């Protein structure tokens, strides 16, 4: 009985979490009403107990009138103020915690997920997934010729283009430097390639204004598909290898990791085809 009473008291006094300041005030009013009723009942029972033992030094009637007039409003105001102060403090602490959590998972320059948040999204994904990697072509040249401010502007524009293309249907991250990643779930390889090609074309068409100049950049991309039995490092390695191949064979293009496997199998069946490989690499 005592333990149940304790549990009830804890539930009643528990602050919990608040979604807004209005919720804090509403909860404070409800709690203040409960405390006022509890204080009033306790006051009445105390007077009756004193009467039963002959210890009440004044008449019961006036005492109950005073208890009725003073106890509920006083206890209500005190409880409302106390609960509101603590409730608002808890709410502000929760908001600060959420902001800190958001900052710790966001890339400050692009506004996209950082690598940590992206890895969490991958770990939570279920079923077949597609990983799209993009790297801004000749980004070092932009930094060297136009300055790092122009480089930052390029990253922001490319991030905006990617976000508009994905439109909330995938996890999007700047995973480092000038490299971006997209995680898609529930899509097939063809759809993933279509999105990657769409992003490549959008970036190439985007105009970037920086340091008094207007210019454009391109991106190269690598795409890989995976199932739940493969880890992030494995699928990332496949996509990264495809991205490297896109860079090495001309840039401003998308390569699917599966096509590289097929090409490797063809070269194994037809060794003479390897003779043409250096020509492709010279175009990088």
- Sheet having the most strands: 5 strands, mixed
Computed CA radius of gyration, to the nearest angstrom: 33 Å
SSE series? HHHHEHHEEHEEEHEHH
Which descriptor suits the 3D outline? Answer: elongated
Helices, by number, come to 10
The portion of residues assigned to helices is 55-70%
Strand sequence of the main sheet, in spatial order? 2-3-1-6-7
Q: Alpha-carbon distance between the termini?
A: 79 Å
Summarize the structure in short:
It is built from ten helices and seven strands.
Topology (elements, then pairings):
Layout: H1 2-13, H2 21-52, H3 60-104, H4 115-124, E1 129-136, H5 139-146, H6 148-166, E2 171-176, E3 179-185, H7 189-205, E4 208-210, E5 213-215, E6 219-226, H8 232-248, E7 254-256, H9 257-269, H10 277-282
Parallel strand pairs: 6-7
Antiparallel strand pairs: 1-3, 1-6, 2-3, 4-5
Helix pairs in contact: 2-3, 5-6, 6-7
Structure description:
This protein has 284 residues and is an alpha+beta fold. Helices cover 63% and strands 13% of the residues. Strand 6, helix 8 and strand 7 form a beta-alpha-beta unit. Helix 5 packs antiparallel against helix 6 and helix 6 packs across helix 7.
Which key terms come to mind for this protein?
alpha+beta, 13% strand, 284 residues
């Amino acid at each position: 009985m005592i333990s149940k009473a304790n549990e009830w008291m804890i539930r009643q006094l528990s602050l919990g979490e608040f979604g807004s300041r209005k919720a804090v005030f509403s909860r404070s009013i409800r709690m203040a009403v409960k405390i006022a009723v509890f204080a009033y009942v306790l006051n009445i029972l105390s007077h009756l107990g004193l009467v039963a033992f002959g210890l009440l030094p004044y008449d019961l009637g006036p005492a109950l009138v005073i208890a009725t007039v003073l106890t509920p409003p006083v206890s209500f105001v005190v409880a409302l103020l106390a609960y509101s102060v603590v409730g608002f403090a808890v709410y502000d602490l929760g908001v600060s915690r959420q902001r800190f959590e958001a900052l710790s998972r966001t890339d400050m320059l692009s506004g996209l997920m950082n690598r940590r948040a992206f890895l969490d999204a991958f770990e939570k994904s279920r079923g077949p997934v597609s990983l799209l990697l993009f790297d801004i072509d000749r980004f070092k040249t932009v930094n060297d010729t136009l300055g790092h401010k122009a480089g930052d502007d390029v990253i922001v524009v490319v991030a905006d283009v990617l976000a508009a293309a994905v439109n909330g249907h995938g996890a999007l991250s700047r995973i480092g430097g000038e490299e971006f990643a997209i995680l898609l779930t529930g899509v097939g390889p063809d759809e993933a390639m279509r999105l990657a090609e769409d992003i490549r074309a959008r970036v190439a068409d985007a105009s970037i204004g920086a340091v008094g100049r207007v210019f454009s950049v391109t991106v190269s991309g690598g795409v890989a598909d995976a199932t739940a039995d493969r880890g992030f490092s494995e699928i990332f390695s496949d996509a990264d290898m495809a991205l490297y191949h896109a860079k090495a064979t001309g840039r401003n293009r998308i390569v699917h990791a599966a096509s590289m496997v097929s090409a490797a199998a063809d070269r194994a069946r037809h060794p003479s085809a390897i003779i043409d490989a250096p020509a492709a690499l010279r175009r990088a």
